[in-house]
Amino acid sequence: MSDVILKVKALGFHWETKDPFMFCAFHQDQFPKGEVNLGPSKEGLKDRFLGNDFHKKDGWRMYHGKEVPGFPYHPHAGFETITLVEKGFADHSDSMGAKGRFGQGDAQWMTAGKGVLHSEMFPLINQDRENPLLLFQIWLNLPKRSKKVDPHYKMLWHEDIPIVEEKDEHGKTIRVKVIAGKYKSEKALDPTPDSLAAEDNTDIQIWRISLEEGAEFILPTGEAESNRILFFYEGDQIKTEGFEIPAGHSLDLEASQELKLVNGNKKAELLLLQGKPINEPVVQQGPFVANSPEEMHDIIREYQRTQFGGWPWPKAEFTHGDKGRFALFADGNLVEK
User: In what residue span(s) does the Pirin N-terminal domain sit (predicted)?
Assistant: First the structure.
């Protein structure tokens, strides 16, 4: 298309990414009022395929939940998830004995490594009003050298995540939330210790970019070897490189060149993913990622043998009652927000 824009694609349910990322799941649901059990009313559950409800009926889905929307316990191995909850809440529980509730702009970084069971439920904590959810879950691959690290999860609380707010030459507001990497003088919080993003020279960048109506933003250059993709998921249209691109599209970009974006007549929301490719074979089977069929066989066999430590919680759809935002880590450390 141009020297900077390599490809433009329509967004689907799972957004396509490039090495070292695997994909980005985007969840936007207008959940109804909640009940005492933190799920929707029985009336709201009628005519749904509970346990596998991915049809956006009445503006929301139950996903794999039967009582509470979300994803009851399931395994991960060989990669990382970065879960950003901009609206609503997620209740996390795992086989390490850790749990927590996060949302309102918080992010969770979880390195699955050699294997972990976890659940992520979306509690409908408001009983007097609707419970909107806006959530991104980014899957970041791990290189072969890190596939067998111990699992670990870390909270990036929204009060601590760096945000750069600036004005363009016309006084329009630009806001960049730095979840990974660095934008201008602001460096992101540290990820988990064994994360790919914790290694030097990987150029892992994850930014949430908000542009006021009519704002002009210059996306700065990255490393020449990096893959870069920009998701334009909400707004009207942006003008760039002589093209008018409507919302609901992604742009594969040449990372070594800057890109000027001119926003249209509505606030625009974008997500940037960037990083140097791992350049290793990828064998994926559901929530498991390996480098070869033999290694995949080993992961599956280990899961069948150990269940990655088993499930220590009383329910598959485990939620955390009327608690506020908190994190209880595997070492017993409790953080309440």
Answer: 61-140
Tens digits of residue pLDDT in 152-163 = 999 999 999 999
Residues 240 and 261 sit within 8 Å (Cβ to Cβ) = yes
d(CA 299, CA 171): 53
> What pTM was estimated for this model as a whole?
0.96
Q: Say how many C-beta atoms besides its own lie within 10 A of residue 13's C-beta.
A: 10
In a 10 Å sphere around its CB, with 0-12 CB exposed, 13-18 middle and 19+ buried, how is residue 51 labelled?
exposed
Q: Which residues of the chain have pLDDT under 50?
A: none
Whether CATH 2.60.120.10 fits 1-11+163-279: yes
Residues 314 and 330: their CA atoms lie apart, in Å, by 17
Beta bridge partners of 9: 250
Model pLDDT, residue 41: 95
Sign of the dihedral defined by the CA atoms of residues 225, 23, 286, 67, in that order: positive
Q: Where is 296: in which H helix or E strand?
A: helix 293-306
Residue span(s) of the chain under CATH 2.60.120.10 come to 1-11+163-279, 21-160+281-313
The residue with tokens 């395929």 is 49
The DSSP letter of residue 147 is: T
Q: Long-range pairs for 302-310 at CB < 8 Å and ≥24 separation?
A: 302/114, 302/115, 303/75, 303/77, 303/115, 306/115, 307/75, 307/95, 307/117, 308/75, 308/77, 308/95, 308/115, 308/116, 308/117, 308/151, 309/95, 309/96, 309/116, 309/117, 310/95, 310/117
Classify domain 21-160+281-313 by CATH number. 2.60.120.10
